[in-house]
């Protein structure tokens, strides 16, 4: 592998635990800051080095939001580096662990996903010498505290990294702001602390974000969301004419409502870009009459207009409407992925990147872009109003676009 020279902060992460380091008495390390700032890779290498030279026959945990994200963001980049450094790695990926040997030292590293509150039970009962939390803010507090409690071996240490969220997030309040009290070494990273990023790539990432996401992911600040969710969509240049070329595929995304409005978006893929080329939007409150599932299905068919649709993505809570589509048997229907904040991040990035475009004839969608706002009070949540077209756009991006696309790899912090 070809290595760039490490930055000063990366070197600090790599050797803080060494016996002759001025920081060796700390009980752990917290690294936060911008995306792509080089936190994850140097921390995971340092974690394995520390474990190998400090313990023999010990058990350690590598934790992420999911086991898949641990393998993708931590394990896969780490493996070739360990081999090149002369470590012997015995892989048992199907059993979610690997063993690392160097000279007379051999330790085992288990992989854990902290997706939700039930995840705490997965790690309960273990005895650990150390744990690394990759993107700790995406994990529930119960899981993190259970894993921390498992580190009962003498000289065990805790390792945390993350991109910032809102200032009232429990990890910011209980760990970042109390780092000194908890005897933790705290290091804040910027994009410039990653020597492997060229100026061109730095500029690219800075253009991908706006508003609070720019503050968090580019500047690395713990800031509250406020104002419009997509402030950059106030620029008329963000909306496109319907392309005149041939479309390769069509998909429909649906946010379904009975009392609330129903919003369906028709998407066409042209020249590698997904365009929202038409919409169905029905508000029973303004129209004065509600529509049945069958009537909404007729509106869906009218929107499709005989096109060959790859799939229809529907709000997962709309079980009756999903069943109507399935019963007719004309289209493939799938429930949408519905993580709100992660979906908003993905939509924001896709719009800024230009991988999706909203066409000018989608007037209800454009209207909602100008009204869709964050709740006041500091927590990351949009107001539950003027959000129906916004939800169908989010369902499309979260479900139809490739999860592994580089522009969505928020946790890939090499």
Task: Explain how this protein is built.
There is one protein chain. The relative contact order is 0.13. This protein starts with 7 loop residues before the first helix and ends in a 14-residue tail after the last helix. It has helices at residues 8-15, 39-54, 67-84, 120-123, 141-149, 170-176, 199-207, 211-217, 284-287, 293-304, 319-328, 340-353, 363-369, 388-400, and strands at 28-33, 59-64, 88-92, 97-102, 105-113, 130-134, 157-162, 184-189, 239-240, 249-255, 262-270, 273-282, 311-314, 333-335, 356-359. Helix content is 33%, strand content 21%. It has an 8-stranded mixed β-sheet, sandwiched between helices. A 7-stranded mixed β-sheet has the order 9-15-12-11-10-13-14, with helices on both faces. By secondary structure, the protein is of the alpha/beta class. It is built from 14 helices and 15 strands.
Attribute tags:
single chain; 414 residues; alpha/beta; 33% helix; disordered C terminus
Summarize the structure.
The protein is 33% helix and 21% strand.
Tell me the layout of helices and strands.
Elements: H1 8-15, E1 28-33, H2 39-54, E2 59-64, H3 67-84, E3 88-92, E4 97-102, E5 105-113, H4 120-123, E6 130-134, H5 141-149, E7 157-162, H6 170-176, E8 184-189, H7 199-207, H8 211-217, E9 239-240, E10 249-255, E11 262-270, E12 273-282, H9 284-287, H10 293-304, E13 311-314, H11 319-328, E14 333-335, H12 340-353, E15 356-359, H13 363-369, H14 388-400
Parallel strand pairs: 1-7, 1-8, 2-5, 2-6, 6-7, 9-15, 10-13, 12-15, 13-14
Antiparallel strand pairs: 3-4, 4-5, 10-11, 11-12
Helix pairs in contact: 1-2, 2-3, 10-11, 12-14
């Amino acid at each position: 592998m070809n290595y760039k020279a490490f930055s000063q902060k990366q070197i600090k992460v790599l050797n803080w635990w060494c016996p002759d380091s001025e920081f060796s008495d700390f009980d752990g390390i917290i690294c936060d800051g911008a995306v792509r700032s080089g936190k994850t890779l140097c921390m995971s290498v340092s974690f394995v080095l520390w474990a190998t030279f400090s313990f023999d026959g010990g058990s350690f945990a590598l934790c992420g939001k999911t086991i898949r994200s641990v393998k993708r963001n931590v394990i896969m980049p780490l493996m070739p580096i360990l081999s090149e450094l002369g470590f012997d790695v015995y892989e048992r990926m199907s059993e979610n662990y690997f063993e690392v040997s160097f000279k007379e030292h051999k330790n085992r590293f288990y992989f854990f996903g902290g997706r939700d509150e039930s995840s705490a039970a997965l790690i309960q009962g273990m005895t650990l010498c150390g744990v690394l939390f990759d993107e700790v803010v995406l994990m529930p507090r119960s899981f993190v505290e259970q894993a921390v409690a498992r580190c009962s071996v003498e000289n065990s240490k805790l390792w945390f990294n993350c991109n910032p969220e809102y200032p009232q997030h429990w990890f910011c309040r209980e760990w970042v702001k109390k780092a000194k009290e908890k005897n933790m070494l705290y290091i804040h990273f910027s994009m410039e602390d990653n020597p492997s990023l060229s100026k061109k790539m730095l500029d690219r990432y800075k253009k991908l974000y706006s508003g609070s996401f720019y503050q968090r992911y580019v500047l690395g600040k713990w800031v509250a969301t406020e104002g419009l969710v997509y402030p950059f969509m106030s620029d008329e240049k963000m909306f496109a004419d319907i392309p005149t070329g041939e479309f390769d595929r069509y998909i429909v995304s649906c946010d379904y409502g009975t009392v609330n409005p129903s919003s369906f978006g028709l998407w066409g893929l042209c020249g590698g870009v997904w365009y929202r080329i038409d919409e169905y939007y029905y508000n029973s409150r303004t129209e004065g009459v509600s529509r049945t599932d069958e009537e909404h299905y007729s509106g869906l068919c009218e929107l499709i207009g005989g096109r060959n649709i790859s799939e229809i993505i529907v709000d997962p809570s709309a079980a009756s409407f999903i069943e109507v589509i399935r019963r007719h048997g004309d289209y493939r229907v799938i429930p949408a992925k519905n993580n709100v904040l992660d979906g908003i991040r993905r939509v924001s990035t896709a719009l800024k990147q230009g991988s999706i475009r909203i066409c000018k004839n989608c007037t209800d969608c454009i209207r909602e872009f100008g009204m869709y706002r964050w709740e006041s009070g500091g927590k990351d949540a949009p107001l539950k109003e003027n959000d129906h077209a916004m939800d169908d756009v989010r369902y499309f991006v979260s479900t139809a676009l490739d999860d592994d696309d580089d522009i969505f790899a928020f946790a890939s912090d090499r």
